[in-house]
Design goal:
By secondary structure, this protein is mainly alpha-helical. The protein is built from eleven helices and two strands. The chain folds into two domains: about 130 residues, Multidrug-efflux Transporter Regulator, Chain: A, Domain 2; about 80 residues.
Length: about 220
Amino acid sequence: MAAAPARERSASAGLLSIGQVLARLTPEFPDLTSSKLRFLEVQGIVSPSRTESGYRKFSAADIERLRLGLTLQRDHYLPLSVIREQLDDAVGEPSFAPPPSITPAPRRYRRAELLAAAGAGPQLLNDAISTGVITAQENYPEATVTLLRGLVALDRHGIEPRHLRSLRQGADREVALIESAMSSLLRRTDAASRARASELAPELASKIDEVRALFVKDALSRVLS
């Protein structure tokens, strides 16, 4: 009877239990729980080994895969399906190193740096802020650089920030629509539901983008016909 436990102890040498994984990762990821760990396993983010008694055991590689996956979810809001692909592509690289475009901390831009990076004039940025197209900040994220570059290109054709206010308002309505669709998930407090909501929201946003693009394409075809 004692032979099986002895074999399990030998096979598990150097491996960590769920409790030990949580003790190691929760200082960095406070929302991590045993139920979320099991959910991440179901989603293919990590595949721990099992003892003969069915207990999960996590290797050092499993820990690194979890750490990277949780970082991508927290800092980059990627759906779990995309995270799984990133992790699978990184297999065999040291410490599951992600692509260079993901690893660095996101850059922030002060006002003058934002204008220079986007090739925009101060008045265009002022107009975008006053109309609510861009939110005034002390330091702007990379996404604002991309947005301001788009405003520069549109401004060359006479499309000003004030003309785009309805697009910003439409985006807010789309977020409210997504929030309503996920209301049952958002009411729950368990980690699995929060993780599913984090994955579902970008998927719904992507589908709304596809539908909007089709609407615009159809309307353009009528204008140009």
